[in-house]
């Protein structure tokens, strides 16, 4: 029962070979074997979302996946968001909008938002609220997290302008910032 | 917590998975998306000695249509159904796409699968409810390549038990008939939680807005998803689609069911919820 499996994981574009027991969840492998401790682990049953990462670009719970199941898939963690020049745009927006206090849930929210915005670059505030309801934050009351995600979407849209198909200052944007 | 130790097996094809399951016996469990099984293992409510991973099986995911109806591969994720284009999931089955918003949260829907949900057999699960409502057929393969079809009405025994044999693998899910006037709605204390009660309605609606019949199914009011013949009889009697008919239908259901009391609500509370949700589902279904 203590069989170890030799697996190859692709995390943040880098391949890692490691020996792992089958029962080891992806979040434990990320933290304990790959020392990528940015991904946090909370409830271990998929409710809190602290361990949210991207699997093939889509947000997923790293506590609800065995590491061995992640073979052949592209894993992205919060460590991939910052660039050589410091924090990424989404991280900056979280900081500017005070979208964190204790910070425990933040890596999960960042990866949730990263996957969500990739799929839905022009979300309404209601859609952001719906997505944000996936994860738990016990400090901020969510308002500022929703603000930060919306601001990041706005900024990304403004910076890509007409390339994304819709002018950045389109008055038809009915998103309410109430 | 951490799950108990198990031995991991990755199946390469369906028959290989069936062979493994036959060989390993009762201590083996299939894992697909794992979004129900892994939490149960982390809680140690489930301690399978072997997991047979079917996620690498070829040809078991995707949506297609033929003369039999709409086929959904068992490894199709909830998210893939939610984001399916009209060309794959037309107005006749739009309810399936819409219902996905009720399945957990986005990060659960990206990994959780249709077949996994049906095999798990949760009484409040959206797929189980839709399967019962719409007469879905679940095609399974067992030892020796033997294939059989289980009608959704015969699949769920309640309390997470199904009529699937331990060495059978779901290979196809078929929704045989169009359901253009169909809706699912539910109520949970917090967004994304398991539903206290879920209601789904499929109306047979004439072009002039007259109801000629229909189906009503409820989740969370019995150990398995159930149809409510008393409420369906009201729809069968027919009448103009509107508040009067929908209220009568919902009241018939409220009187007919005997839901359990638990932490999510008392029996009486669930009865009232069922009534409210059936009216809501009828309105949504008629508006399609």
UniProtKB/TrEMBL annotation, chain A:
Alphabetical list of Pfam families matching this protein:
Fer2 (PF00111), Fer2_2 (PF01799)
Pathway(s) this gene product operates in, as recorded in its UniProt entry:
Alkaloid degradation; nicotine degradation
- Which UniProt keyword terms apply here? 2Fe-2S, Iron, Iron-sulfur, Metal-binding, Oxidoreductase
Q: Identify the SUPFAM superfamilies for this entry.
A: 2Fe-2S ferredoxin-like, CO dehydrogenase ISP C-domain like
Q: Does the keyword Transmembrane helix apply?
A: no
Q: Which GO terms describe its molecular function?
A: 2 iron, 2 sulfur cluster binding; metal ion binding; oxidoreductase activity
What's the protein name? Answer: (2Fe-2S)-binding protein
Q: What is the lineage of its organism?
A: Bacteria, Bacillati, Actinomycetota, Actinomycetes, Streptosporangiales
Automatic annotation (TrEMBL), chain B:
Statement: the UniProt record of this protein carries the keyword Oxidoreductase? yes
* Keyword terms, alphabetized: FAD, Flavoprotein, Oxidoreductase
InterPro entries in alphabetical order: CO_DH_flav_C, CO_DH_flav_C_dom_sf, Diverse_Substr_Oxidored, FAD-bd_PCMH, FAD-bd_PCMH-like_sf, FAD-bd_PCMH_sub1, FAD-bd_PCMH_sub2, Mopterin_DH_FAD-bd
Q: Does the keyword Oxidoreductase apply?
A: yes
Q: Return one GO MF term.
A: FAD binding
**Start and end of every FAD-binding PCMH-type domain?**
1-180
What Pfam families does UniProt report for this protein, alphabetically?
Answer: CO_deh_flav_C, FAD_binding_5
The UniProt entry, under SUPFAM superfamilies, shows: CO dehydrogenase flavoprotein C-terminal domain-like, FAD-binding/transporter-associated domain-like
Q: Where does the secretion signal sit in this chain?
A: none
Q: What is this protein called?
A: Carbon monoxide dehydrogenase
What phylogenetic lineage does the species belong to?
A: Bacteria, Bacillati, Actinomycetota, Actinomycetes, Streptosporangiales
């Amino acid at each position: 029962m203590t069989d170890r499996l030799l697996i190859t994981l692709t995390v943040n574009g880098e391949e890692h070979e490691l020996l792992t027991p089958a029962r080891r969840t992806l979040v434990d492998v990320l933290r304990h074997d790959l020392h990528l401790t940015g991904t946090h682990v909370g409830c271990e049953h998929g409710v809190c979302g602290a361990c949210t990462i991207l699997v093939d670009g889509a947000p997923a719970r790293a506590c609800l996946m065995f590491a061995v199941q992640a073979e052949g898939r592209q894993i992205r963690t919060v460590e991939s968001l910052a660039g050589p020049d410091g924090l990424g745009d989404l991280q900056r927006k979280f900081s500017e909008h005070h979208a964190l206090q204790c910070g425990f849930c933040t890596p999960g929210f960042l990866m949730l938002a990263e996957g969500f915005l990739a799929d839905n670059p022009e979300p309404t505030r209601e859609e952001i609220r719906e997505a944000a309801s996936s994860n738990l934050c016990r400090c901020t009351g969510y308002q500022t997290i929703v603000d930060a995600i919306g601001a990041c979407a706005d900024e990304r849209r403004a910076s890509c302008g007409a390339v994304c198909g819709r002018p950045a200052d389109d008055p038809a944007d009915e998103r309410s910032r109430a | 917590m951490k799950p108990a130790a198990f031995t991991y097996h990755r199946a390469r094809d369906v028959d290989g998975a069936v062979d493994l399951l036959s060989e390993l016996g009762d201590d083996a469990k299939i894992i697909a998306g794992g979004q129900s099984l892994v939490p149960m293992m982390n809680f140690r409510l489930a301690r399978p000695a072997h997991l047979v991973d079917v996620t690498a099986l070829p040809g078991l995911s995707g949506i297609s249509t033929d003369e039999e109806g709409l086929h959904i591969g068992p490894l199709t994720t909830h998210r893939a159904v939610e984001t399916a284009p009209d060309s794959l999931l037309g107005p006749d089955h739009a309810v399936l796409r819409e219902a996905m918003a009720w399945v957990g949260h986005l990060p659960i829907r990206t990994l959780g699968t249709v077949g996994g949900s049906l095999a798990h057999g949760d009484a409040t699960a959206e797929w189980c409810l839709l399967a019962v409502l719409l007469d879905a057929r679940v095609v399974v393969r067992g030892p020796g390549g033997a294939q059989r079809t289980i009608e959704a009405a015969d699949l769920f025994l309640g309390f997470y038990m199904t009529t699937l044999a331990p060495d059978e693998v779901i290979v196809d899910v078929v929704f045989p008939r169009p359901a253009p006037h169909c809706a699912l709605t539910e109520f949970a204390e917090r967004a994304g939680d398991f539903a206290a009660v879920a209601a789904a309605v499929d109306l047979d609606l004439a072009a002039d807005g007259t109801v000629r019949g229909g189906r009503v199914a409820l989740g969370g009011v019995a150990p398995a998803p159930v149809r409510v013949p008393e409420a369906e009889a009201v729809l069968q009697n027919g009448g103009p689609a509107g508040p009067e008919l929908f209220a009568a239908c919902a009241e018939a259901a409220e009187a007919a069911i005997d839901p359990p009391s638990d932490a999510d609500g008392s029996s009486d509370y669930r009865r009232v919820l069922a009534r409210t949700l059936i009216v809501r589902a009828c309105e949504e279904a008629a508006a399609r």
